[in-house]
Amino acid sequence: MKIHEYQAKEILGKGGVVVPEGGVARTPEEARAVATRLGRKVVVKAQVHAGGRGKAGGIKVVSTPQEAEEAAKALLGTTLVTFQTGPEGAPVNSVLVEEAIDVKRELYLGLVIDGAAQGVVVMASAAGGMEIEEVAEKTPELLLREKVDPVLGLLPFQGRKIAFGLVIGPKLVRPLSTMIANLYQVFLDNDCSLVEINPLVVTADGRILAADAKMDFEDDAFFRHPDLEYLRDTSQEDPLELRAREADVSYVKLDGTVGCLVNGAGLAMATLDVIGESGARPANFLDVGGGANEEKVAEALRIILSDPNVDTVLINIFGGILRGDMIAAGILAAVEGTEHQDRRIVVRMLGTNADQGRQMLQASSLNVSLVEDLGDVAEAIRASN
Ligand code: GDP
Ligand code: MN
């Protein structure tokens, strides 16, 4: 789960990571009040669950409370489109007003769970402000990496090694290694999957602080943190993904045209490959899960069909607890008599009551192609396009 920069900074601040002084505002008047309280030059920053705000005009440096109010007025209520939000953008419902920093150097510092390293990796780079993916690609020698042993934890020498590697000067080695240690503790305490400080700023007066903060919680561990639930901002989520979460269906929107409904994550991955083989592109990943029922199949199919890019739906289900007749009933409930009545649906089902399910679909008025073998699925999709 992603959260806003101002929320991440609150958590980091409590964990002993130095962040700029500031406050969140939901109206231009509130922004003015925060700027007045700070009593100096401030930055007004659009709060959306995406980076790239600077280049998109979502960050404004201003000198007076009056200007802070105007900057907030210009941002609040708009939709900010950055290279990370996609063309639909994200709504700006709040802004962070904080002290402007006199930037001398911009560095990058990030903690991430690295599957290959089987643990947390601390990454740092002297090329801050830039996208880290770009640094890794173009100048990999500028990317410092320290793998954290999950049993030993982050060791003090590792923080120092990064500090020396960034060549920030002897005075800042201790503050930076302390910051890295605190960041790692926050990461652990909150079951994060990512914490990214970009840029980590060295100021003209020799301080080091987190000018930006991105924090992502591991969804599978989130049940351990009911106290963090209030941080969720559903206005920033894809509406279909949100609806899928409410239906307890694993759904990830993709950009192709073949919607797919599958039970089991492994089968769903294999199904995406089969769609790729056919020369088409999947519109989504969707796993209804093992214990699905008729209503869940119907809701999953409605979610798939709500994506305007979908022209064909592929349903690939291996029935066990989820019986063939339930699947067919779910499909009929979602499609029959709706505007999607004529949509091409390719169905492969095996297992308990599969024959019964196939008969129900064949007897219906839906535009269904039944296939037996996974190899025939690619052919059926090709034929429908
Ligand atoms: P992002 O573009 O969404 O990642 O937002 P950031 O918070 O990283 O801000 C983008 C850029 O704005 C930073 O890389 C800085 O160059 C600049 N910036 C942000 N805050 C300040 C500030 O307080 N003072 C100055 N001078 N620049 C800032
Ligand atoms: Mn940033």
Note the topology.
Layout (H helix, E strand, L loop, with lengths): L4 H10 L7 E4 L2 H11 L3 E5 L12 E4 L2 H11 L3 E2 L9 E2 L3 E5 L3 E12 L4 E7 L6 H7 L4 E5 L8 H10 L7 H17 L2 E12 L4 E3 L3 E4 L21 H8 L3 E4 L4 E5 L2 H13 L6 E4 L6 H12 L6 E8 L4 H12 L8 E8 L2 H9 L5 E3 L3 H11 L1
Parallel strand pairs: 14-16, 16-17, 17-18
Antiparallel strand pairs: 1-6, 2-3, 2-6, 4-5, 7-8, 7-10, 8-9, 10-11, 10-12, 13-15
Helix pairs in contact: 2-3, 5-6, 8-12, 9-10, 10-11
Please name the CATH topology of the largest domain: D-amino Acid Aminotransferase, Chain A, domain 1
Biggest beta sheet summary: 6 strands, antiparallel
What class, by secondary structure content? alpha+beta
Shape estimate:
elongated
Strand content: 25-35%
Q: pLDDT under 50 segments (min length 5)?
A: none
- The CATH architecture category of the largest domain equals 2-Layer Sandwich
Bound molecules: guanosine-5'-diphosphate, manganese (II) ion
Order of helices and strands: HEHEEHEEEEEHEHHEEEHEEHEHEHEHEH
**What is the helix fraction of residues, given as a range?**
25-40%
Characterization of the model:
The chain has twelve helices and 18 strands. It has helices at residues 5-14, 28-38, 65-75, 132-138, 156-165, 173-189, 239-246, 265-277, 294-305, 324-335, 354-362, 374-384; strands at 22-25, 42-46, 59-62, 79-80, 90-91, 95-99, 103-114, 119-125, 143-147, 192-203, 208-210, 214-217, 250-253, 258-262, 284-287, 312-319, 344-351, 368-370. The chain folds into three domains: 1-18 and 102-237, D-amino Acid Aminotransferase, Chain A, domain 1, CATH 3.30.470; 21-100, Dna Ligase, domain 1 (2-Layer Sandwich); 238-383, Succinyl-CoA synthetase domains (Rossmann fold), CATH 3.40.50.261. α5 (156-165) packs across α6 (173-189), α8 (265-277) packs across α12 and α10 packs parallel to α11 (354-362). Strands 7, 8, 9, 10, 11 and 12 form a six-stranded antiparallel β-sheet that branches. Strands 1-6-2-3 form a four-stranded antiparallel β-sheet, covered by helices on one side. The chain has a four-stranded parallel β-sheet with strand order 14-16-17-18, sandwiched between helices. By secondary structure, the chain is an alpha+beta fold. β16, α10 and β17 form a beta-alpha-beta unit. The radius of gyration is 25 Å and the shape is elongated. Residues 51, 198, 212 line the site of manganese (II) ion (MN).
